[in-house]
Prior knowledge:
four-stranded mixed sheet
Amino acid sequence: MxxxxxxxxxxxxxxxxxxxxxxxxxLIEEAKxxxxxxxxxxxxxxxxxxxxxxxxxxxxxEDSFYVQVKPEDAxxxxxxxxxxxxxxxxxxxxxxxxxxxxxxxxxxFYNKQLRIVLRNCGSIDPENVDEYIAADxxxxxxxVLFEMKPDDVIAELKTAGLRGRGGxxxxxxxxxxxxxxxxxxxKYVVCNADEGDPxxxxxxxxxxxxxxxxxxxxxxxxxxIGAHQGYIYIRAEYPLxxxxxxxxxxxxxxxxxxxxxxxxxxxxxxxxxxxGAGAFVCGEETALLQSIEGxxxxxxxxxxxxxxxxxxxxxxxxxxxxxxANIPVIITKGGAWFASIGTDDSHGTKVFALTxxxxxxxxxxxxxxxxxxxxxxxVGGGIAKGKKFKAVQTGGPSGGVxxxxxxxxxxxxxxxxxxxxxxxxxxxIVMDEDDCIVDVAKFYLNFTVDESCGKCAPCRIGGKSxxxxxxxxxxxxGTEEDIEQINQIALAMKKGSLCALGQTAPNPVLxxxxxxxxxxxxxxxxxxxxxxxxKKLIRYQINPEKCIGCTACxxxxxVGAISGEVKKPHRIDAKACIKxxxxxxxxxxxxxxxx
Length: 595
């Protein structure tokens, strides 16, 4: 029997932290208490991507898009939408004057997106294999096992032009082919789900919303290269993604889609989960393999590459979650279809975690070639609080800053490299005028210094030395000679580090130096932080023309550094001021200024 309405509730980590699970349970209970449980089906899905507006509830067939829903709203949704057949207008996302019953795709956040990797996230129950199958799930595996030879799969991937989405952009077909041609009866397939970039959650969300797509793709790879065992390496901090993977694997085995004699084809393939302890360096493939084997996660010299000598010394294919999620669609729709999307050297789409000083933060999937301006202003809705755009960091701790003059750069592997950044796994952090570029560079460098495994001296010593110089600059003790020293240390790290962590760690510093030399000069020569972030380089003062003497700042000052009479301009004692900024945030008249 069909239902009158289907209610989809976001069940991603972000929304669950905002009590979406209670919303889900309340909707079920309300449907029962209002006597319409036979008219409505409530489904918990993965994330919808529009994290800024979560928790999100979507009602079909009207395609009603309810945002910032609270558990107590469940009663009204059932009473109004299901029982009376009218939308709850106050919960609709109407920032673009969206009319009732208008399609969700018309919302600005979505209308430039093309969801291939995220195709099922927010539309199916990730813990129900039947829903994945109804959305063409395992159709690609069936096609591969009964209609294609391993070389046919390789050819299709070559036609598609899919490149690894983990950051390096290596052609996927070539990696698979190397392992396929490698000698040996035992081979392995590995999924790298060790997502560690600050602000990044693309892989986690994909696994939470569509775990079967990764299982299906890994099984296809196993058939193609002659492997019978796969491993998913995922950090233990992702409990929801781990749970949904475990449920999906159990269901796949029950349906004959994983394990022995898959779909009666005679092909055996199974997958195990290995938990990581959160080491960023284990995102590097050789360190990841070391960790799976039970060793400390430290990179190994290459060659030999994992495709020839990988896990337990056997040929191994390693791809990240986003790369795997593309595979079933390529097989079902064809490599030529996939290749028609994107640019000449970067086909398909790319998923980004859009965060920072942006109006619409969330998970975004756009065709390769989409410009940064389109992502920041069209999809992201521009800079929050009406502030001025300063830069956007792509590629996480391995990438670089991109300034306003490069906002029209198309997003693809080559274009980002040419302006000193990189695609990376998909982190995209937007900065505004209040961000200090030196402080941002210091933040990323501090992250990589903490995450260095310490195996090689260029990374271990070089990173610490660079960190010391940036710390010196932000404390007001920098000299002009420091810039030359930064460049020399960065070059040594790039040339001498064993793995990509050390080789790319200087990138945020070098790109910030390239595009914001005047900000470094202000810190070093003028002993001033233009953004007012570096405490040692700022001074608070009160503009007497704006101060009305309300005493709010003096009452909030924790050290009593502000004095003055009521209704008369106040003063700040610079020697007593601890530069906490409470006065500035308290003043409603903009009288507190940073110098």
